[in-house]
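Prompt: May I have another protein with tokenized structure?
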Amino acid sequence: MKIGIVQQSNSKDKVANIEKSLKGIEACKKQGAELVVLQELHCGIYFCQAEDTTMFDLAEPIPGESSEIFSKSAKKNNIVLVTSLFEKRAPGIFHNTAVVFENDGSIAGKYRKMHIPDDPAYYEKFYFTPGDLNFKPIQTSIGKLGVLVCWDQWYPEAARLMALNGAEILIYPTAIGWESTDSKEEKERQHIAWQTIQRGHAIANGLPVVAVNRVGHEADWSGATGGIDFWGQSFVAGPQGEILFSAPGDEEINHVIEIDPQRTEYVRRIWPFLRDRRIDAYEDILKRYVD
């Protein structure tokens, strides 16, 4: 399976952002991509740096104008396409939604971000209603895609449930970076933790992982912080956590990496973690905390 990743910087110019994504998709197609993955909220700035009700104007229904653009791109390029859109579901109900398009342009499925952060510069709870589509892989012509979004990538439960539901690959559109006051040492710790836990999901479930992050500096228009430096470094890991590709941290890139889906079968035979799970002893996992 040939997978294309589009790591890009974003501005307030929505039209320019979309055009950049479309060109990235076409560049990946020229490299033979069958599946292309875009980063989280690729149509605009990362607006969650501050709480601002005017930002809800960026949201769109699905289907809608932006989803139609990417539907046409998937069909034109004959690819399966993973996008990430700000969904307006109803007045007062908005989601951070990944939309997967089949190679004929139809919507193969959606995933609404389940874990919603609320941290300095990442005030997503103000904007997004938690997802309600659960951890169900999306069936496509190239396999079952376990699509999750950004903050979901820190939760082994989400990856495990996608795997138990038959996902053949884990995909994480992402928007993560460093706040301007973070020290060099703290930046390194954060990045290592981010990559390590996702490689852990690959190992624990015997599945390849694709994480596509945005890149570049985005200012905090409220002035509360110095903005976010998105660290890029999108990567693909194999089912033993091996790094198959890692993008640079300071530039845009459109790249295609080939993976072998059949390795999951081999890896799960030699590391049968799913076989040895003690499902009779995990009831406490459903509690917030075990006192």
